[in-house]
Amino acid sequence: MLSVFLFLSIKAFRDVNPDGLRFWQGFSIGLIYTLVFTVCYALFLWLYASIMDDIYFDEYRAMIIEKIQAGKDMLVDQMGEEGYQDYLKSGESSNGRIIGSLAFNNILIGFLITPLISLFMRTSEPQKQNLD
Hints:
Keywords: Membrane, Transmembrane, Transmembrane helix. By secondary structure, the chain is an all-alpha fold. It has one domain (2-121). It is 80% helix and 0% strand. The chain has 5 helices and no strands. The chain has helices at 2-16, 23-52, 56-70, 72-90, 95-121. α1 (2-16) crosses α2 (23-52), α1 (2-16) runs parallel beside α5 and α3 packs antiparallel against α4 (72-90). The radius of gyration is 22 Å and the shape is elongated. The model has no long low-confidence stretch (mean pLDDT 85).
């Protein structure tokens, strides 16, 4: 969803700007949009979990712990038993840490996709007309 709206915001700027779109403009718009989207997303999650659905994060934590336990053998081979236990404890994160992790993922995706969209959407330099 972030990627689609990121593309649409850069496209909207390109369509209304008579000078076209330079890479730096698309990149700036994309980063600003990503940060605003992420803040709104994090606030929505916090409000939703706090006001409407008290067990949302409890269910999310249970899902994460189930996934960790399902891959126990592989994780113990890679991390050792102590590392696995630490990883399992990390699945019992606070609500703020879960929201922070999801927000970080959004920002990371935005930072990776924005340059690609900016390169794809940029226009060539406008031709200066000779008035002589």
